[in-house]
Write a structure and sequence with these properties.
This protein is of the alpha/beta class. It has a single domain, classed as P-loop containing nucleotide triphosphate hydrolases (Rossmann fold), CATH 3.40.50. Helix content is 50%, strand content 18%. The strands form 2 sheets. Strands 2-7-1-8-9 form a 5-stranded parallel β-sheet, with helices on both faces. Strands 4-3-6-5 form a 4-stranded mixed β-sheet. The N terminus is likely disordered. The structure holds guanosine-5'-monophosphate. The site of guanosine-5'-monophosphate has 15 residues, from strand 5, strand 6 and helix 5.
Length: 222
Amino acid sequence: MTDGEETAKHRGLLIVLSGPSGVGKGTVGKRLRARMPELVYSVSVTSRPPRAGEVEGVNYFFRTRSQFEEMIRQDAFLEWAEYVSNYYGTPKAFVFEQLEQGRDVLLEIDVQGARQVRERYPGGVFIFLAPPTWEALAERISARGTEDAIVIRRRLAQAAREVEEIGLYDYIVVNDDIDAAVERIRCIIAAEHLRTTRIVEDFVRRLKREEVRDEVSTDRRS
Ligand code: 5GP
């Protein structure tokens, strides 16, 4: 058996961390990844220009609008959305490769994107990161200081629409304290690995693979 076959016994979990802009997805996601280094982070593609300190291939893959549109035509995205006049999307091939190799993959994406992933990959784990209060979210968006007043207003309006979609999610985690939020997400991931349906699915996948292997070796012998 090759290493690839060994690791492919269990498909990884697709964990979708979503919620309004400014709720702290980035901060919580970063600390979660530090706590769970085995989690694979899916780096998104965006047409937004880099902010100070952002690094190509680490924070995002930065592309022009026309490059992004070409990727849409090539069906390169698991999901994509236009958010406050910029495109954001999740590269599909990378995510599926990692899941097939048995690795858990983390997406930090907006609510429109989470909705698309839910349609295309319902086996994902959908977590809504919620602000402790609306005022806290408004404060965080304004305090970021990287955007002008119009963009801030648009991000707030978008956030108000996004909170209405909370029912799409499997879990709600309130980001009242970063470490507490990270710990709740860690527990969710641990519990999801123990779900009966996933364990049974993996078992059936394994059986099928072994059946195929048996058939091949029987064919070779005859
Ligand atoms: P920012 O411009 O602040 O980095 O991101 C703006 C919003 O886009 C955030 O809510 C962020 O989570 C979301 N986002 C980042 N990457 C993706 C992606 O690949 N797809 C979608 N749908 N949203 C994303």
